[in-house]
Amino acid sequence: MTRTLRGLIGLAGFLLAWEVFSRSGIVPQQYLPPPSTVLTRFVELLGDRAFLLDLIASVLAWAIALGIAIAIAVPAGLLLGSVPWIRSGTRAIIEFLRPIPSVALIPLAIVLVGAGPETKITLAVYAAVWPILFNTIYALDEIDPVMVDTARSFGFGRGRVMCTVALPSAAPFVLTGIRMSAAVALILVVSTEFLAGGGSGLGSFVLDASTGAGRMDLVLAGTLVAGIVGYLSNEALELVHKRAFRWSAVDREAG
Amino acid sequence: MSPLPRRDLLKLAGGMITAGAVMGTGGCGLLGGSEAQQGGNAQVEKANLRVGGLPTSELAPLHLAVQNGHFQREGLTVEIINAADGASALNSTIGGDYDITFSSYVPIFAAQAHGVAQLKIVADCASSVPNTCMIMASPNSSVRRPKDLAGKKIAISGAGTISELMVKAAMKANGVDYGKVQWVPLGFVNMPNALRASQVDAAFVVEPFLTLSARDAGAIPVVDTATGPLEDLPLGGYVSSAKFADENPKTISAFQRAMDTAVAEAQDRSKIEPLLPQFAKIDKETASIITLLKMNSRADSTRLQRIPRLMREFGYIDKDVDVASMIIAPPQS
């Protein structure tokens, strides 16, 4: 509980500093509204039907993107991690694709999959695949060879070793990858909405609030909502991690 | 050491896939995409329209037509998609992502004259009235009269935009040389602050930033561009690609009828004001004091021809554009 308390004290201190700085008049208040104003807007927005629809649109797109990314990256990671020649054959392509900033692909995505929710989901999937993929590959490198040999000596075939030994021992690494990807996918969904425009979504809301009338209070309130979604998703995944993989030390490394 | 049993892993994976499938099918409407239904109905060839827009006050009639069911009565379901800026909205329409879009007239006629696209004007949107499009000066600059603008730093929303054209035309009308002006491209949203902090000497500002720059930055009006040669200048309208218009004549007519009704209704300011906080995020207080543009719905070739004529005069295009051939005649109701 003391950890929570410390966290709250830290947060209160930050908000207080922000409030003082904002009210001091160093920058005009409409460009950096104090947290009291932002929190008021935040509460108002949570009761606003149009905003809730924006929120649902973004969260749904994010959940779908993360689901698709998991479905692509885990099998691909198992394949690349266990078959050396495929891994060395695809290394160059993967290292080329990985650093491309996903938002730079917005125009290409619009041409390929059309405008609308498909664009942001596609880009979020693209960005979210990498952390899961690499974590899965590395996890397979870390398997205790004694366990594999033991399973082999019991006459287990390749597929069975994969399911009974490799996958369970890789699972904590994979989940750590999913946690990283969850954050990446959320950032991508919101920034694609912001950059490409759209009918609904948190990013579109922020875009309208900033270009329509320069409402920084609404911009920050919308950003706060996105931050809370990211925080809650991370906490939930961390909880799953602690429950399911109590025996693993990976979460301590991942922080 | 007890790793997750395989059965649990399989269950977990199965659950995720099921959840994903359920979300994917049930969430389509909530995702904010229009249903992928390309068909029409008895009234129109294409019932679901994607219309590009911007979060600016002149789009109020479009939002009014959605809210009050004017489109629905014509058999249309319109999804308004706010683009990041006018140019990208027009590009999305040329590319076929939007069926119809709002755009200011300068990029429309530029695209037509340069042969980038064949566009059709579906409806007019708004034209300038006094106190809506003004050149404002920073309170600390020496600019007080039109002739002071020569050789100064002037902020405009972008090169090749209607704001640049209006500033040049206003300066020429006042006999001021605009050749040595330093143009500073800046988003409207940043103009009040740029004027306050003297980052520019003057700026071409539109509502609601006009009200905000006067109120918060102490900016001083220098020229009202909507007087003299630019009085009642058509600023923007709704366009579609010529291909879309040729293939969907009934849809276009239905859109025009709905906009006619909405614009007639929008002449009453009290109908528009409550919409501004919703789609343009203008706060209620500001919404009640800003000057609204003159809302129009029927495109008139004589009035619209003024824009390409001005564009040619100031070197934006090198040949004339025949506006009359671009306008789709409104239905005879």
TrEMBL record, chain A:
Signal peptide: none annotated. It comes from Saccharopolyspora phatthalungensis. Its main location: membrane. Residues 55-237 form the ABC transmembrane type-1 domain. The lineage of its organism: Bacteria, Bacillati, Actinomycetota, Actinomycetes, Pseudonocardiales. It is found in: Cell membrane. CDD domains: TM_PBP2. It comes from the Bacteria. Keywords: Cell membrane, Membrane, Transmembrane, Transmembrane helix, Transport. Belongs to the binding-protein-dependent transport system permease family. GO terms for biological process: transmembrane transport. The chain crosses the membrane at residues 55-80, 92-115, 121-140, 184-206, 218-237. GO terms for cellular component: plasma membrane. It is a multi-pass membrane protein. The keyword Transmembrane helix applies. InterPro entries: MetI-like, MetI-like_sf. This is NitT/TauT family transport system permease protein. Pfam families: BPD_transp_1.
TrEMBL record, chain B:
It is found in: Periplasm. One of its GO terms (cellular component) is periplasmic space. It comes from the Bacteria. The keyword Transcription regulation does not apply. The keyword ATP-binding does not apply. Pfam families: NMT1. Residues 58-267 form the SsuA/THI5-like domain. InterPro entries: SsuA/THI5, TAT_signal. Keywords: Signal. Belongs to the bacterial solute-binding protein SsuA/TauA family. This is NitT/TauT family transport system substrate-binding protein. It comes from Saccharopolyspora phatthalungensis. The lineage of its organism: Bacteria, Bacillati, Actinomycetota, Actinomycetes, Pseudonocardiales.
